[in-house]
TrEMBL record, chain A:
Annotated source species: Leuconostoc fallax
Annotated protein name in UniProt: ABC transmembrane type-1 domain-containing protein
Parts of the chain that traverse the membrane: 31-54, 66-89, 95-118, 163-184, 204-225
The UniProt record lists the keyword Cell membrane: yes
Major localization listed first in the record, in broad terms: membrane
CDD domains: TM_PBP2
TrEMBL record, chain B:
GO process terms (BP): amino acid transport
UniProt-listed SUPFAM superfamilies: ACT-like, P-loop containing nucleoside triphosphate hydrolases
Lineage: Bacteria, Bacillati, Bacillota, Bacilli, Lactobacillales
One Pfam family it belongs to: ABC_tran
Name of protein: ABC transporter domain-containing protein
Length: 231, 361
């Protein structure tokens, strides 16, 4: 059995399990990058998305200036291709993390890359919260934060989970590119050790593992979104 | 007269759009007394919602003054540009005392019936035990105790509206604004909701502002009515005044939809007796209010004027305890006799409107 595997997937075996270039290392790197940048970028995106909805002309605290700022920042960051962003913000990354290469360093561009995407998704999700419900909440004397947490985030939560799923999946895609700044991960495995070295078996396995990750996120997201919806 | 609980004075609301300004409410003043059920009727786009949303400042007026229960919420004089506006925190507290219900219920979809009502008590000083009791009491009041753990999607329209009413009542408001609250409901459910509003008005002394395009609803429970058109109130008065002596064409139209008299005129008009109206006959509509109904008028017409009255259709409503009637009648006799008879009817405060015939009168 093991010899059959060694014969047919020599490069996969060559990479090893642990160690700097091992499979387990790549898997944990991808999960590490996805998790932390989802957290930071997600929080930033949520704040900007909420800000866009709240300060919009039809929001609960219309404010032209703030809306303009939120809108332009999001648009600007969305317009920068990720691979360029990686290089472009390297000095900023160094300022925060202390280094501009490696897995942890990649969290900065990954967070900044995913946040505008998520902000727009959040904006769309929360705009779908019925204006009448917000108005009803105002009419019973709900405060600003009651409406943010009790109405927007609560009523929109199923939709938020749906867009978070979409965002997470595209974030997993972005982590593949982070290999360019030495962040490792499954994407790097597929390209640097697989594609570049004509090690097709390595490419295939790395792709398969990414696929499994994406599928797991999708399934969990769908189940959660469905569970939390009472519409 | 006591101070009105709601005093809107010279309210104008305009919306600036790219090219033009829409004036949704144009210099309207309304005073609503404590305990009133004040009906505001008008067709779509008349400005009803915009006007009532001014009461709790969901809509800030362009100019005018809003005084609720003695507190000035807003005051802006377009000429001097002086502006007073209640502080946001105070407004929130005041809003708790002004319940509002809507056409589309606007319940929180992701919360159960209990949670929806409890949401209104978030800032209440009650202990959590007292809150739970209060919610239970409110649900009992609207007869939904058995649905406490359901989500809105599991309820019928009428049940949803009752949850909305319970929520609106959570902070013991003195005013309840109902913006087309029955427009999405079937007639039977509409009547249940109206009966509930009426009983709240009577039991709790709740002042109700009832916006609707259905005169039928107003007729059921209102004691005062205002008719809106193009951002203005074109006619107002007690329910009785409006129903008995409508002055404006639009008011008549609304009343006719509520009494079915327009349909009756059409149906009766097709009958041979009206269609081939005799030379010496006239087809009229008699309208009267109150005590007139007690007199044997029709008998008198024959006895005193020798005019026969053939009643083809009759409708009597009792509005706030006073009968209001409409009869479709063919009067027959000599022209002079009919003229005298009509004069006598008018003397008895019966309004006579000729519908067909009687050109010689
Ligand atoms: N936020 C807004 N911006 C621009 N125009 C508005 C706004 N709100 C209302 N209007 C306009 O003001 C006018 C009155 O609207 P309003 O909703 O008060 O009418 P309504 O009498 O309540 O009608 P309906 O019976 O359909 O509810 C309409 O012409 C409407 O288009
Ligand atoms: Mg309306």
């Amino acid at each position: 059995m093991s010899t059959w595997f060694e014969q047919n997937f020599p490069n996969v075996v060559y990479q090893g399990w642990s160690g700097d270039t091992g499979w387990w290392t790549a898997i944990t790197q991808t999960i590490y990058m996805t998790f932390w940048s989802a957290l930071f970028g997600g929080l930033l995106g949520l704040i900007f998305g909420l800000g866009l909805v709240i300060t919009s002309p039809s929001g609960i605290a219309p404010n032209k200036t703030l809306f303009w700022i939120f809108d332009k920042v999001v648009s600007l960051f969305r317009a920068i291709p990720f691979i360029i962003l990686l290089a472009f913000i390297a000095p900023f990354t160094k300022l925060i993390v202390g280094t501009q290469i490696g897995t942890t360093a990649s969290l900065v561009p990954l967070s900044l890359g995913v946040f505008p995407f998520y902000a727009r998704q959040v904006q769309v999700a929360l705009t779908e919260v019925n204006a009448g419900i917000v108005e009803a909440a105002q009419s019973i004397g709900a405060s600003f934060w009651d409406i943010v947490f009790g109405v927007y985030l609560r009523e929109g939560r199923s939709e938020l989970i749906r867009v978070s799923t979409v965002t997470l999946i595209s974030l997993i895609g972005l982590t593949a590119m982070a290999g360019a700044i030495g962040a490792g991960g499954l994407g790097n495995m597929a390209i640097a050790y697989g594609y570049n070295r004509y090690a097709t078996d390595t490419t295939v396995l790395a792709t398969l593992l990414v696929l499994i990750l994406v599928l797991a996120v999708q399934i969990i997201g769908d189940v959660l979104a469905r569970r939390l919806s009472h519409k | 007269m006591s101070e009105p609980i709601i005093a809107l004075d010279n309210i104008t609301v305009s919306f600036k759009q790219k090219k033009r300004t829409i004036t949704a409410v144009n210099n309207v003043s309304v005073h609503i007394e404590r305990g009133d059920v004040y009906g505001i009727v008008g067709y779509s786009g008349a400005g009803k919602s915009t006007l009532v949303r001014v009461i709790n400042l969901l809509q800030e007026p362009t100019s005018g003054s809003v005084v609720v229960n003695g507190t000035t919420f807003f005051k802006h004089d377009a000429n001097t540009n002086d502006k007073i506006r209640i502080k946001n925190n105070d407004l929130r507290l005041r809003r708790q005392k002004i319940g509002m219900i809507f056409q589309h219920f606007n319940l929180l979809n992701e919360r159960t019936v209990t949670e929806n009502v409890a949401f209104a008590l978030e800032h209440s000083k009650l202990s959590s035990k007292e809150k739970a009791q209060k919610v239970a009491d409110l649900l009992a009041l609207v007869d939904l105790s058995d649905r406490a753990d359901n989500y809105p999607s599991q309820l019928s329209g009428g049940q949803k509206q009752r949850v909305a009413i319970a929520r609106a009542l959570a902070n013991d408001p003195e005013i309840l604004i109902s913006d087309e609250a029955t427009s999405a409901l079937d007639p039977k459910t509409t009547n249940q909701i109206l009966a509930l509003l009426k009983s709240l008005n009577q039991k709790l002394g709740l002042t109700v502002v009832l916006i609707t395009h259905e005169m039928q609803a107003v007729k059921e429970i209102a004691n005062k009515v205002a008719v809106m058109q193009d951002g203005e109130i074109i006619e107002r008065g007690s329910l009785l005044e409006i129903f008995a002596q409508p002055k404006e064409q639009l008011t008549r139209e609304f009343i006719e939809t509520a009494t079915n008299i327009d349909k009756a005129i059409e149906t009766v008009g097709h009958q041979p007796i009206v269609h081939n109206l005799a030379e010496n006959a006239v087809f009229v509509r008699l309208s009267y209010v109150g005590k007139t109904t007690d007199q044997p008028l029709i008998t008198r017409l024959f006895r005193d004027f020798n005019v026969t009255a053939n009643i083809l259709y009759g409708n009597i409503e009792v509005l706030q305890g006073t009968p209001v009637g409409s009869l479709l009648v063919i009067l027959q006799g000599t022209p002079q006799a009919i003229t005298n008879a009509i004069a006598a009817l008018n003397d008895n405060e019966v309004d006579v409107e000729k519908i067909k015939g009687g050109q010689s009168l």
